[in-house]
């Protein structure tokens, strides 16, 4: 699903070396954690996969295709096929949970007759079918995070990128979110989770990639949190 070959990312203005000669592969259907100290390069990795940033050197392939060959509209289409759960993509305040989730279907061009069924399935996956009429302010942070996951998965993306999906959540809600992500993975979506949540990485074991100063220093198939 993802292949990085000797990828280096140096941010232009500050000349920060965010990723340094990174080579790795993530196969279809895998569940992978990305861990590392703050500034290790986790978000930069996600941004490269989404082509929000361009590598200074090296080659990136997503779903078998070289990202450098994607241009304009194709880049937009690629992004639409990748579900994202990021701290900064908040729910739209004026829309209820159902409409927030349906919004993804609108922008991905899914026919309207499929919306109700798909939204209901996604809301059920995150355990919030009964809250579909609630506005974001009427939901707890954990529930809002689960709606954000429902929104990310409703179009059945082959790949889901989650950057700190349990940031700001208490331990119970964090575990709930992790279970949801695992369910999504069991349904066939490749899931990559960048996180600082040691307890989750230790409890729900999956392959774990550790970055340190932009370098891959560990690739543990059985998981475990060692920075
Ligand atoms: N847009 C940018 N311009 C310049 N430097 C950046 C930019 N974004 C990130 N950096 C720098 O690149 C390095 C990697 O940052 P990145 O956000 O990828 O780390 P991270 O592992 O996601 O950190 P955190 O766990 O704190 O989110 C850091 O030194 C950071 O300061």
TrEMBL record:
It comes from Deinococcus metallilatus. One of its GO terms (biological process) is cell division. InterPro entries: AAA+_ATPase (IPR003593), ABC_transporter-like_ATP-bd (IPR003439), ABC_transporter-like_CS (IPR017871), ABC_transpr_LolD-like (IPR015854), Cell_div_FtsE (IPR005286), P-loop_NTPase (IPR027417). SUPFAM superfamilies: P-loop containing nucleoside triphosphate hydrolases. It is found in: Cell membrane. Its main location: membrane. Homodimer. Forms a membrane-associated complex with FtsX. One of its GO terms (cellular component) is plasma membrane. Transmembrane segments: none annotated. Part of the ABC transporter FtsEX involved in cellular division. It is a peripheral membrane protein. Residues 2-227 form the ABC transporter domain. It holds the Pfam family ABC_tran. One of its GO terms (molecular function) is ATP binding. Belongs to the ABC transporter superfamily. This is Cell division ATP-binding protein FtsE. Keywords: ATP-binding, Cell cycle, Cell division, Cell membrane, Membrane, Nucleotide-binding.
């Amino acid at each position: 699903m993802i292949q990085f070959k000797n990828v280096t990312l140096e941010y232009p203005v500050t000349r920060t070396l965010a990723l340094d000669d990174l080579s790795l592969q993530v196969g279809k259907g895998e569940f992978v954690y990305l861990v590392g100290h703050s500034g290790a390069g986790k978000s930069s990795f996600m941004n490269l996969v989404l082509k929000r940033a361009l590598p200074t050197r090296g080659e990136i392939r997503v779903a078998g295709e070289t990202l450098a060959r994607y241009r304009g509209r194709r880049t937009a289409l690629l992004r639409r096929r990748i579900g994202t759960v990021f701290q900064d993509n908040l729910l739209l305040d004026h829309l209820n949970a159902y409409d927030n989730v349906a919004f993804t279907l609108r922008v991905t061009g899914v026919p309207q007759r499929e919306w109700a069924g798909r939204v209901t399935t996604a809301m059920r996956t995150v355990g919030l079918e009964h809250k579909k009429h609630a506005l974001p302010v009427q939901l707890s942070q954990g529930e809002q995070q689960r709606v954000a996951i429902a929104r990310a998965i409703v179009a059945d993306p082959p790949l889901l990128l989650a950057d700190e999906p349990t940031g700001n959540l208490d331990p119970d809600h964090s575990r709930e979110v992790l279970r949801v992500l695992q369910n999504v993975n069991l349904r066939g979506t490749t899931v990559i989770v960048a996180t600082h949540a040691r307890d989750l990485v230790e409890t729900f074991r999956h392959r774990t990639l550790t970055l340190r100063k932009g370098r891959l220093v560990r690739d543990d198939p059985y998981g475990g949190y060692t920075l």
